[in-house]
UniProtKB/TrEMBL annotation:
Gene3D superfamilies (UniProt xref): Vaccinia Virus protein VP39
Position of the signal peptide: none
Comp. bias intervals (Polar residues): 14-32
GO terms under cellular component: cytoplasm
Species assigned in the record: Penicillium patulum (Penicillium griseofulvum)
The protein, known as: Nicotinamide N-methyltransferase
Ranges where the record places region Disordered: 1-40
GO molecular function, one term: S-adenosylmethionine-dependent methyltransferase activity
Domain of life according to the entry: Eukaryota
Source taxonomy: Eukaryota, Fungi, Dikarya, Ascomycota, Pezizomycotina
InterPro entries found in the cross-reference section: Methyltransf_16, SAM-dependent_MTases_sf
Amino acid sequence: MLNSRLRPLPRHYNPTNTPSAPAPEFQNQDTTSEPDEEPEDIFGAFLPHIFPDDTPPFHGDPGQHLLYSSPRYGDLNIMVPSYPSSSQNRSEEIAAGQAKPDGTVNKVNEQRQLFAHFLWSAAMVVAEGVEEADTPAGETETEAQKANRDLWSVKGESVLELGAGAGLPSIVCALADASVVATTDHPSSPALQGAITFNIEHNLAKRTPGVAGKVSMHPHEWGVLDDSFSVANKGAFTRIVAADCYWMRGQHENLARTMQWFLAPGGKVWVVAGFHTGRAIVAGFFETVLEHGFVIEKIYERDLVAKSDDGSEIRREWAPVREGEGVENQKRWCVIAVLKRQGE
């Protein structure tokens, strides 16, 4: 089981002493939604009883350290980004999250809406796939295992992670011999305020200094392509990772534009998404990228809970709608897709 790779480290590993944040709560858009809801309201109502402990879509408390057990690379100490605003005055913190009289977005509120202060299961799916692709093949490797290796291999590839949060895929891609790794998140993301730096330094610089030099961290707002990082790296990445970046329907076009901008000729985009807000919003993203010059090279759903008797993944065909599925069964599946440009 994928989630068995993680365990929390003792609380004394939390140097920020950041108080726990409430779990994000999701309004599943396959059921009901209000068209004018605020972003945090979309995450409303019923996550705790949709996602029990056996298949959570996210892991850790803000500022907490998690031990990711990797058969290939050993234990990785992953610091979860701290919750935005660590004010000890709770009333001050609550006030900071309110809308301003002039209608502008409060920085604290904006940070919280990014939900970067958790480690998401989709990031673990990418990390596991990359790690297994970097593990030497056994004498009895099956065709399915070889195909999976080809899908996830990053050896010699230039990798860009979007909406990185804790940056676990970036760390594993560096260990798996990617030529260069750029880890990005929104400029206001709490991930840029210590967690990604710690994860690079602790898991790479202290263990394999040469590998750490391959990884860099950059702020990037999707769809904003005139910043210095974007200008310097147009068409620079042969692999783009975007794990659980799709709950904001209004950002789908910007995300697609960012992917097109940074993707190198012949490059691939990995899309991994759980169904926290339902299938409809994920399907909407695929419709958007098809309108922006991409084709879907490969797409399937993976069971996050069980595996076959031989240890291989349980997969099924992607379906934008599954009649009678219900939200209770959505929790155990994610969609994995590979995008490439039209005509390549």
